[in-house]
Request: fold
Amino acid sequence: MPDLQALVTDFVLKLKRRKIEGSQATAKQTAELLRQVVSQQRMPYTNQASVLIDAVRAVGEQLIAANPIGELSNSYLFLAVGNIVRRVLHIIREENLSSTTAAMEGLGLTAGSDDDEGEHEDRPGLSAAAVAAAARSTLRAPSLQTLLEDIPESAVAPHPSSSGGDSEGKSKSADRGSRSKKLKHDVIEAINELIQDIDTCHELISEQAVEHIHQNEVILTLGRSRTVKEFLCAAKEKKRTFRVFVAEGAPRYQGHVLAKELVGKGIQTTVITDSAVFAMISRVNMVIVGAHAIMANGGVIAPVGINMVALAAQRHAVPFVVVAGSHKLCPLYPHNPEVLLNEFRCPSDLLDFGEFSDCMDYGSLGGSPLLHVVNPAFDYVQPKLVSLFITDTGGHNPSYVYRLIADYYSADDLVVQQNST
Amino acid sequence: MDNRRPPRTVSDPKVRQVGFVTPGAAPPARYLSEAPTAAAASSPPSGDTAPPAISTSPVMIPPPRHSPSAPLAVPNPSRRDSLQIQVGGYNPPEVLLESPPLTSPSSRMDDAVSQFSEDPSISPCNGRSEAAKVASSFPGSSGEMMVMKAGIVGGGSNTPKSSWTTASVAKTRPGISEKERGAVVGMQNDGAGVSKTLKEKTTKAERRALQEAQRSAKAAAKESGAGVKLSAAPGGAVPANTKQGKVVKPPAQKKDGPQVANPSVSSEKKVVDRPPEKDRKKDVPPPRMQFDDIHRVEKAKRRAVVYQFEAKNRVELFRHLPQYIHGTQLPDLETKFFQLDPMHPSVYKVGLQYLSGNISGGNARCIAMLLAFREAIRDYSTPPEKALVRDLTAKISSYVSFLIECRPLSISMGNAIRFLKNRIAKLPDTMPESEVKSSLQSDIDRFINEKIVIADKVIIRHAVTKIRDGDVLLTYGLSCVVEMLLVYAHEVGKQFRVVIVDSRPKLEGQVLLHRLVAKGINCTYTHVNAISYIMHEVTLVFLGAASVLSNGTVYSRVGTACVAMVANAFRVPVLICCEAYKFHERVQLDSICSNELGDPDVISKVPGRKDLNHLDNRADIENLQLLNLTYDATPSDFVSMIITDYGMLPPSSVPVIVREYRRENLWI
Reply:
């Protein structure tokens, strides 16, 4: 355990110091850390799932609390951490559910008590059963049978916590002994799968490149995203010739890096300044950008400047395509995302330190300084500006994102930090 | 806006009201009273008196100053007054200039003959071939000068052309001139006979006189809005003359036609029957040089003073625009500084400053150019055997082509050059050289003062009425009008905050930021990518413009369109501040057909970011291009209002301004 605690604090420190670059790396490392948490967790005979959930949630809270501003206004790194924590929680629930339903079906009992007990203990405030039932209905594959089954279940669900709890617990306890190893093992397996998914999402996405990029297409992108790079390179490898305009993406100028990478692959690349985006967009066939997070409403949190590109693309009816792995799907609905989901970088990106020190003196006489430098890191792109999301599960409309999210997250976990609030 | 407009109570049909008009204001009086205050406030505005008057006063458009047809000597007295009041340093001789003494052609003819009697080659033909010789001895722009001469000989009617066309027309010139010379010589040889010398003498003088008279007639005709009708010229010309006219006339040049006209025909008569369509046709701006046309580029290169290297790895989309390796011209030019004969040092200096980017911005470049021309005119003396008007026009044209080689002309400069050439073309021949020079210099001063300095003040007075307390004003880059506006608004005590949006590579916003913060204005600085973030708090956007085109498109520093677009998306009004002399009748839909390419290397290097060296050896990489656009075109639907010296207009009114005031711009 101290070993684990050390790992967690180490990771938190890394996050705080921005040592981890990119949401993909963050997601992967978070998943690996949570795998450690799960594997080191000692499993009791009862309530295994809830124990696991508690452990993961505790770590997740720690990770998210590392963000100085709080969870709702977290940067993309913390969005990624939160996403992965939720994903792991969801995996545990799902694995538990599948094992219990397998057991239940064998015993001929109704499902649903297992989760109730766990939640009964640690958070009596929530109407746990209702939430769990709702969650379960979304977890299962929507077949006619489950639809039929769920109707009585949800009607019954609020009650059984008092009556059925003890009896069921006794009857199932023997069974759980045999399942104890199995659940943990399954969860770890599933987390491994998740890590693998994160690793391979680029390949899955770039496989679709040829379907979207045609011969002699002119593509515009801004900044650098690994997914975009892989996407374009995949199209190039399939013998498509096209031209790419890369807006440099001030103030990080990652566009330069992307341009160099693309040129290395033999793609015709033109670097333009960000201000020339509007001038060039009239000759562009498609805008392809990466994202930091896809919000539940289909909005996109992306590097700063993308909203400008999206507006220009809309004006010229150019398709605006966002490529992102499914680990970037975020189950939160954005509220005032330009401010609350943003992060501000150092002003020295824009102005040299000391250049305006004399002006600062002048200004501070009046109480507040005369000069403010605003250097936000992210833009929020409204769902209506996005033409298509290309994820590792295929292409999706912005209006469909909410459903994708229901596939990956459980409604219980939307608020990770519930104890503190 | 429409329902606020009062019913047409104004009796004077010439006074038009545009923009926001308060009912009950007496427009003409207001306008006149407003003008002096604007003129008087050449010192920093005192702040108390002017703004209230402005805020209530309607925005007036004075009647366009179409030059009335013949009796120019009796202009509208009221207009004269207003002109005199408006322009501070304005002395009577210049007012006289407005009405060139259109005395009888004969007397003028005499004058002209006496003036040029010492000229050995009086015949236009010989004169031209002479000019060609002289011109070809200049290193660079002989073709250009030739064209200008030909134009002047042809009646001076093609002077308002932009220099782009002259450059393109110049392509065909040299060969033809050779031919002409040959033809003339041949004609003189075979058509001579025994009485060759005698005949030549008489015809020379006659032809010369004819020429002068025709030119004056033509000028008069032109300024009255109509020209000489070709067929209206009755015979009466000497046979030799017609013959010559035929010989002289190059196949493409129709302007030489009126040469055949008889001097005895009064100019007033010809004036009337010119179809207006012909004049209308001239409104269409000439096509610009397309640099993907290899032949033309080759020819242009041969004439070039500046030795330039074409950049490698050019963007396919922008083949039609010139792009040179930046900095290669500079050392070459510097070595030429002392040997470059035809260039005046002040013009040369300005050219180098354009090249190095020390002077940028439409107004600054225009003023610098005009001042350089002014100096050149001051030091100008008509060489022997030359006519002042032709030689000076040719000189100016060669200066202009040199400046174009340093950096493509801005539209403001193009308009100013048009103005200057018109002034020169309109000069009466009888005027002594010193007077011509002083009048041209004061013309230039007047243009700078009236069209730029005072226009800016008027714009500021208009614009400041739109700023309310508590506003957050956003501006992009560095526009001198907007800067003056912000400073002025601060001085008159408006409470506001400024957001300065900037972009690479020029980072002109930092300059503005320095100046505004030094003035004590509360500023927020950000880059263009963050525009969607910052736009939430903005209430008004003020932008400058390099030009406003006839379809309402605002042609301005690259990035302006982005700012206007985002402002439009956030429902923030976009106000464009632009002097009316920058309006142009050209139309443009995108930023690609016409633009200016900057130095691509500045894109790869980010100052202060040593770690960004990914694009360093870009010349070796074949697939990589860097594109540094200088301008972009903002569609008119992003623009809420254009503030000019004629008032505040919607972008749809730009063609009206262009139509009504273009003539006035030319003939100030």
